[in-house]
Amino acid sequence: MNEPSGSRPVRHPGSSMALLTDLMDHPLDPGYQEAADRRRAAGEPTSRGLRSPVLVVTAVLIGVLLVVAAQTLRLPQDAADRERDQLIGQIHSQQSAIDRKSGAISGLQAEISASQRKVLDQGEGPSLVDQLARTEQAAGAVAVHGPGLELTLDDARTDAGVGEDDKNGSGEEQSSVTSTDLQILTNGLWQAGAEAISINGQRLTSTSSIRFAGPAITVDFRPISRPYVVSVVGEPVQMRKRFEAGPSGSYLKSLPSQFDLQVKMTNKGDVQIPASASSLLQYAKPSPSTTASPSTTQKETP
Predict the structure, then answer these.
(1) Mean pLDDT of all residues in the chain?
(2) What are the φ/ψ torsions at residue 169 (nearest 5 degrees)?
């Protein structure tokens, strides 16, 4: 039958595999093939194979170099332990120095407050003294105590032990108390009428921060460890009712049921809260009655 005019020519089925066919027929590169033919014509083996002494020596040398490099780059375990111990010692030493200086600051602040009260007693009378006392309490500059609440939070119980910390990114981080938990709960306590709050002895002020730093929680850049004890000064009965009725109270109730966290809230007859170690004087203004230029304002850089 004649092929209709204008139709496409029929191609051989194997024409599309010409390259594969050529590779199968001539697997050796033409240059290597020429060298093999030349060695065969000279009576030599076509290839030295893998038994060449030069190749064996080169492989041994490379292996030795790799072993030496690995041993050089690998830090000895004893040296790593010593460096870790040194770092831990430096951390404890610096933390102790911070605690000593914080205590000295608190003592000096107490002396300054006593001197201020002494001067104010001689001048404007007790109204300024009371105003200063209220301002210091609100700013967290002085220690306070009184009836209140104590809220204790701890990580979930694990098979390895009570409250075993597990924040290694294995997906079980929800079983640990987080900085977000403390932020939500302390904000709810402020809204419920708390007058002063501290977490593990760290006083919270209007400028305090609660953050996560790796596996640790910090309050004003000072690390704290579990269990987390939130001490609150304020009228305990009404403050607790308002807190439990609010969203923070619902959030607290969800922590044991959803994440197995350990939670305990108790009323206390006397809660001790220290002064904030991070309170700094930001602004000061002379009293109009003690200076001739009342418009002068001084700012002290922290």
Answers:
(1) 79
(2) 80, 20
pLDDT of residue 159: 59
Q: Copy the structure tokens of residue 302.
A: 């922290």
Q: Determine which of 77-81, 96-100, 190-194, 229-233 has the lowest per-residue pLDDT on average.
A: 77-81
Residue 74 CA to its chain's centroid (Å)? 28
Convert the pLDDT of each residue in 91-121 to its tens digit.
889 888 888 887 888 788 778 878 877 777 7
Q: CA-CA distance, 181 to 186, in Å (whole number)?
A: 9
Give the contacts of 265 (CB within 8 A, at least 6 positions apart).
Answer: 149, 150, 151, 152, 240, 252
C-alpha distance from residue 53 to each of 6, 39, 58, 60 (Å) = 66, 19, 8, 11
Q: What is the rounded CA–CA span in Å between residue 148 and residue 234?
A: 5
pTM for the whole structure = 0.57
